[in-house]
Amino acid sequence: MDGNAPNRAFAHRHLLGIEGLSADDIIYLLDLADSYFEFNRRPDKKLDVLRGRTVMNLFFEDSTRTRTSFELAGKRLGGDVINMSVRDSSIKKGETLIDTAMTLNAMNPDVLIVRHPDSGAVELLSQKVACSVINGGDGSHEHPTQALLDALTIRRRKGRLKGLLVAICGDVLHSRVGRSNIHLLNIMGARVRVVGPPTLLPPEIERMGVEVHHDMEGGLADCDIVMMLRLQTERMHGIFVPSVREYFHFFGLDYAKLAAAKPDALIMHPGPVNRGAEIDTEVADDITRSVIPEQVEAGVAVRMACLEAITRNPSTEFDGAAS
């Protein structure tokens, strides 16, 4: 383990990103989530931590697993969970984000979980509402709970984060998951590589404290963790790869490329998995190496921990906001 939870409450009103959190903040959330991981395997999975609290899921982008995971987390903590259908709401009829904030304020929710296609939109909304806000993913900016669940999965398997060599492979340019993981792993003392074609890596990404590789063999050499990313085709405006077939040939994870990593290297993917594009089916389903199902399980535990952490104290006692 990287340490014990600090003897204090989580010192942030919102969870908008990993950037801005301290190592103690992250350990606090991971330790709390670790206890919920075991709790969720019990027959009786109902608590009253959020009894009387209202949690709203407001997703401007489709997301089955993240929205469902937050819904399950809120209900297991005893909260009232509301899923707002943006597709059918007035937001789709021209209502601005500020108008939405005013509407939500009138409903007096305690926690708002927001996913939005535009980077920075969740932070803007957090400035206009009276409740706490958790970022469920904003554009290509951040996806903090995904990075936390990835960290929990790694820590449960490897016992630590510090000193591990992690390769984040694929479409880093468009990935909020990749960005949040880079922040978290650097904060926790891991060594991070990014691997992908130049067209799918942000310019000057070295400034984020990572090593850059443009081939899988060199990028995966001696890695403890191989984290594959989804091709974000919905965010691609232009031609970033010649074809999916060619992309898989050079950057898709198969056993030949995986041989460069350590024999006990873990395979991760945030999902949904595009088999034959980012990862070979046999590798994705390898029960000795792939922790993809554990990532999903960790997601509920992490989101329970985040909901408890930001609602533990009255909002007037919070001293800041993670951004």
Structure overview:
With 323 residues, the protein is α/β, with parallel strands linked by helices. 36% of the residues lie in helices and 14% in strands. The strands form two sheets. It has a five-stranded parallel beta sheet with strand order 7-6-5-8-9. Helix 1 crosses helix 11 (292-311) and helix 2 crosses helix 11. The radius of gyration is 19 Å and the shape is globular. The model is unreliable at 1-6 and 314-323 (pLDDT under 50).
Task: Give the secondary structure arrangement, pairings included.
Blueprint: H1 23-39, E1 54-59, H2 64-76, E2 80-84, H3 97-107, E3 111-116, H4 121-126, E4 132-138, H5 144-158, E5 165-169, H6 176-187, E6 191-195, E7 211-213, H7 216-220, E8 225-228, H8 244-251, H9 255-258, E9 266-268, H10 281-284, H11 292-311
Parallel strand pairs: 1-2, 1-3, 3-4, 5-6, 5-8, 6-7, 8-9
Helix pairs in contact: 1-5, 1-11, 2-11, 5-6, 5-11
